[in-house]
Amino acid sequence: GIGIREVLLTSGCPGTEAKCIVRVEECRGPVDCGWGIPISEGLACVKMPCIYIPPENRFKYVWKMLIPNKTAHILPNDSAIMEVCRDTHSVTFQCETQENGNIIASVKYTVYATTEMETKKSRRIETGQSRRKTTDAILIFCLVTGMIVTVGVIFAMIFMILHW
Question: Which residue windows are transmembrane per the record (predicted)?
Answer without folding.
Answer: 138-162
